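Bug #77: duplicate submission created two jobs. Keeping one. Sequence:
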Amino acid sequence: MEPEPYPVTFSIDYPDRKLNRLTTFFRIFTVIPIFIVFAVLVPAVYGANEYAYWAAGAAGTGVLFLPLVLMILFRKKYPRWWYDWNLEILRFGNRIGVYLALMDDRYPSTDEQQAVHLDFPYPDAEAELSRGLPLVKWFLAIPHYVVLFFLYIGAFFAILFAWFAILFTGRYPRELFTFVEGVTRWYNRVIGYSLALVTDKYPPFRLGP
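Kept job's structure:
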């Protein structure tokens, strides 16, 4: 029986080809320029005020969060441009993460999806989102945070092993790729539920689609 699809979908195209050994070896350094772009993007948009930055940039993802909580709570609205921002900033951050995890050797684009596919539907706030639930979603997601802590430890060692595999063979082992992709998918579902607030459907405890 196929599991019920979750509104937040995520996948990465497996690189069925030889990966660049040189950029793989120096990946922790080559990612720095695009990471700086991402790191300064959110403060540049939200301003230098520390409280405004914290209120707008949730969990280091750049996701618009606290204003959304207030808008849903008092107006039952999810402004379209806030949705567009959350989706695109999460896509951008995921491209950087996937590049750092050695799963793609193409340099992360600021706008093109490349090999990373993240999507979630624009929510009908009036009909689909609970008015008060955004206040407690972060708390309800705590079990996922705990599981993800251990999954990320496993993903770290999987990426480390893949680093050696790519240096010697030029290939990312398919089983390791699938595992790291699953962990990242799990993370994005939790972010979509607890921070981007695009769905009230509780995230599943699974790595697969």
